[in-house]
Design a protein that fits this description.
- There is one protein chain.
- This protein has helices spanning 20-25, 46-58, 73-77, 82-98, 134-144, 156-168, 171-181, 194-202, 209-229, 255-264, 276-279, 287-293, 326-340, 368-389; strands at residues 6-11, 30-33, 62-67, 103-107, 118-122, 128-132, 233-237, 270-275, 298-303, 306-308, 314-316, 345-348.
- It is an alpha/beta fold.
- It is globular.
- It has 14 helices and 12 strands.
- Helix 4 packs parallel to helix 9 (209-229) and helix 12 (287-293) packs parallel to helix 13.
- Helix 10 (255-264) links the parallel strand 7 and strand 8.
- Strands 1-2-3-4-7-8-9-12 form an 8-stranded parallel beta barrel.
- It has 2 domains: 6-110 and 209-389, Alpha-Beta Barrel (TIM Barrel), CATH 3.20.20.150; 118-202, no CATH class.
- Bound molecules: D-mannose.
- Residues 67-68, 105-107, 113-114, 186, 237, 302, 349-350, 365 line the site of D-mannose.
Length: 390
């Protein structure tokens, strides 16, 4: 028997313009979804979980991965109601397990989730991609958001580059970069306001990398035993982009950082969502050796590639293009699955907006056709890899 990826896509729920049947037609057997309507920190009830599960099953799809069960800012900072939020998190893990949903993705990025300066960057083939442009980001930080103290995080050269870039930006470009950087959390249509972000940043002033790491480890010590007891696995998503932004610490970006919290709570239930698109932005993250090293702790896979340039910008490439050696990554993951005798859930992470989707409004990165193309290509690579193993 061959072990292969359980193919899936993310579905944002009943408001997602992409229909569940479309995921099925793309070849998915599984769905990755979350109860975005429940406020962060509250318990996911069995009733709400079952409602979502019934929707997935009506399209012949199995809800096998939660992305995400979000971790509150109170938990990340250890302030306010964090103990209650942790108790609620434990309860949600139990409820999900009672319904048969056993893989839970989350992240530990302060305040914002993933961040791009451009969510509709035109590629040479006229499809649209997500892009991070370093100078645009610096212009946002220094001149649009005007984060107090931001200038301390940049060199003289960078400050001059950011100023020149900002001065050259037409008003509509300024607005666009501003709103792209302030996009709300995944699944939400409500953007952050600059005032909210500035106030939240203020609350992280005394939290450095070491402190945030301690908070993650404390959180894991509380929730991992609960996950283990009910046969579930936690899968932390790496930071995206994988380096500090806005003066906030990052603790899930490098191989050494992953090793630290995995070793600190050494249970198989304390695992990773191995996202090649996020980790692959750093040239010092060697993806195949990381897969081999963390083989037993990978519970969910996001496959995506990016192209970096010498200036520190990156754009999301086609799934088989860019800096990630996708064939090598899939070979390594396939070997892990055969060794561990598991089918790992996998989703093509993001896709270009293309064809008919260019006229639709979808969640950035989550239009249907680009992901369908990505999944088809990835599935083809996996089939070839499995054939070669014969
Ligand atoms: C971006 C996603 C992330 C991811 C969360 C997991 O498209 O990969 O938003 O879902 O960081 O908690």
């Amino acid at each position: 028997m061959k072990y292969r990826f359980e193919q899936s896509m993310r579905w944002y729920g009943p408001n997602d313009p992409v229909d569940l049947w479309h995921l099925r037609q793309a070849g998915c057997t599984g769905v990755v979804t979350a109860l975005h309507h429940i406020p962060v920190g509250e318990v996911w009830t069995i009733e709400e979980i079952k409602k979502r599960q019934t929707m997935c099953e009506a399209a012949g799809l199995h809800w096998h991965v939660v992305e995400s069960l979000p971790v509150s800012e109170d938990i990340k900072r250890q302030t306010g109601n964090y103990l209650e939020h942790i108790a609620n998190y434990q309860q949600s893990i139990r409820h999900l397990a009672a319904c048969g949903v056993h893989v839970i993705t989350y992240n530990f990025m302060p305040i914002l989730d993933w961040l791009r300066t451009d969510v509709a960057y035109e590629m040479p083939d006229r499809s649209r991609a997500l892009r991070f442009e370093r100078k645009a980001f610096m212009a946002f930080d220094l001149h649009l958001l005007q984060r107090p103290g931001a200038e301390r995080d940049y060199s003289e050269t960078e400050l001059a580059e950011a100023r020149a870039y900002y001065d050259s930006m037409p008003a509509d470009k300024r607005e666009q970069v501003f709103s792209n950087c302030l996009l709300g959390l995944p699944g939400s249509d409500v953007p952050f306001t600059p005032a909210e972000v500035l106030a939240a940043l203020q609350q992280y002033q005394h939290i450095d990398e070491q402190r945030l790491q301690q908070h993650l480890i404390y959180f894991l010590q509380q929730v991992v035993p609960v996950a283990e007891a009910v046969g579930s696995r936690l899968a932390i998503h790496p930071d995206d982009p994988p380096y500090p932004l806005l003066g906030l610490p990052r603790i899930v970006s490098t191989e050494a950082q992953l090793a630290t919290f995995l070793n600190a709570v050494p249970s198989p239930a304390n695992g990773l969502c191995f996202c090649t698109g996020s980790l692959g932005v750093r040239p010092d993250n060697a993806l195949v050796p990381m897969i081999e090293r963390f083989a037993d702790r990978i519970h969910f896979v996001h496959l995506r590639s990016t192209s970096r340039d010498a200036e520190g910008n990156f754009v999301e490439a086609d799934h088989l293009d860019g800096d990630v050696d996708m064939v090598a990554v899939i070979s390594a993951l396939s070997a892990v699955m055969q060794q561990r005798r598991v089918h790992l859930p996998m989703r093509p992470d993001h896709g270009h907006q293309m064809l008919d989707d260019l006229h639709k409004t979808t969640y950035p990165g989550y239009s249907a056709i680009g992901r369908l193309r990505g999944l088809a290509e990835l599935r083809g690579v996996e089939a070839a890899v499995l054939h070669q193993q014969d």
